[in-house]
Amino acid sequence: MSGIRQLLETRRAELLHKMEPVEAQAVELRTNLAKTDSKLKAMTKEIAEIEKALQAISKERLQTKVSIKEAILEVLADAPGGLASPQLLTALNDRFFDGKLVRTSMSPQLSRLKNDDHKIKYRGDKWFLA
Questions:
Q1: Claim to verify: residue 14 and residue 59 sit in the same structural domain
Q2: pLDDT of 82-130, one tens digit each?
Q3: Does 80 share its domain with 123?
Q4: For residue 37, how many other CB atoms are within 10 A of its CB?
Q5: 54 and 91, same structural domain?
Q6: Co-location of 72 and 49 in the same domain
Q7: What's the rounded Cα separation, in Å, for the pair 89 and 94?
Q8: What is the tens place of the pLDDT at every residue in 21-33?
Q9: Same-domain check for residues 55 and 83
Q10: Are 127 and 120 a contacting pair, CB within 8 Å?
Q11: Cα 14 to chain center, whole Å?
Q12: Are strands 83-84 and 126-129 parallel, antiparallel or unpaired?
C-alpha cells in the first residue's frame, strides 16, 4: 500500500512543480486581458461620444437655415477652380439642402450675385467668386 501512496505523492509533487509556471502565465494573461479590455472599453466609449457629436452636428446643420446666395458663396469659396452649374447644384445639395434644391431655384440667385451684388463671375462654363 505504501508503494501506491508513494507513487501518488510523487505524481502530486511533479504536478505542483509543473503548475507553478502555468499559474504564473495564467496570471500574466489575465492581467493583459484586463488591460486590453479596459482599452477596448475606453475606445468604445469614445466612439459613442463621437457618434453623439456627429449626430448633434447633423441636427445643427439641418436646423441652420442658410440662404441660397450664402450657400453659393460658401461653396464657391471652397472651389478656387470654379464650378460648372451642375457641379455647383450638386455641391449645394450635398452640403446644405439635402437634395431639395432645384436648378430653377438656384438660377435667379446666381444672376443676382453676378449682376446686382458683383460677388461672383461666370467665365467659360464655370462660376467663380469675384
A1: yes
A2: 999 999 999 988 888 888 888 887 889 999 999 999 999 999 999 999 9
A3: yes
A4: 10
A5: no
A6: no
A7: 9
A8: 999 999 999 999 9
A9: no
A10: yes
A11: 56
A12: antiparallel
Q: Dihedral, CA atoms, 69, 93, 111, 71, nearest 10 degrees? A: 20
Q: Which three cell numbers stand for residue 100?
A: 431639395
CA atoms of 90 and 59, how far apart (whole Å): 21
- Name the residue range of residue 39's domain: 1-64
* CB environment 83-105: b (16+ within 10 A), e (fewer): beeeebbebbbeebbeeebeeee
Please name the amino acid found at residue 33: L
Dig out the grid coordinates for 56 from the structure.
448633434
Query: What whole-number distance in Å separates Cα of residue 67 and Cα of residue 112?
Result: 13
Q: Is residue 49 domain-shared with residue 84, that is, in the same domain?
A: no
Closest to 96 (Cα-Cα) out of 83, 106, 82, 108 = 106
Same domain, 58 and 75: no
Distance from C-alpha of 121 to C-alpha of 87, rounded to nearest angstrom: 16
